[in-house]
Specification:
70% of the residues lie in helices and 0% in strands. By secondary structure, the chain is mainly α. It has two domains: 36 residues, no CATH class; 82 residues. The longest helix has 35 residues.
């Protein structure tokens, strides 16, 4: 936005107004999305179980097995790392499957019991 401007590198009122405006816009958009989806916390749970489980558990384990490991996984120097990475992989898959299932089941139960509130609603469901 400020490619050849001093605003890009030095604190100026123009730079601060740009940053505050951008942060305000992003915050308002995030609030609208969070309030428009009645089961937003359950949706976050689904996305966490689908993506965070992979990025924190089974992708790093797979990368160790495929890219980082030197030699056989059952060699003396790799045996402990093989066990730890296999355990991380299994934990990640359990979180992926169990978390996704329980989050979807919670959304279904919320709709069946009628406890899902309306969009932009401050009151509790009837």
């Amino acid at each position: 936005m400020y490619r050849d401007s001093v605003t890009r590198f030095i604190n100026t009122p123009k730079g601060w107004i740009s940053w505050v405006s951008l942060i305000t816009l992003i915050t308002v958009i995030a609030w609208v999305i969070a309030e428009a989806i009645p089961f937003f916390s359950d949706l976050l749970a689904i996305s966490s179980s689908l993506f965070i489980s992979g990025f924190t558990f089974y992708f790093p384990a797979m990368m160790w097995f495929m890219l980082i490991r030197k030699g056989s996984p059952f060699s003396k120097e790799n045996l402990v790392w093989t066990i730890l990475n296999a355990l991380c992989f299994v934990v990640g898959i359990v979180i992926l499957v169990g978390g996704t299932y329980s989050s979807i089941k919670d959304i279904i139960n919320s709709y069946e019991t009628g406890s899902v509130r309306g969009a932009f609603s401050c009151s509790s469901p009837a």
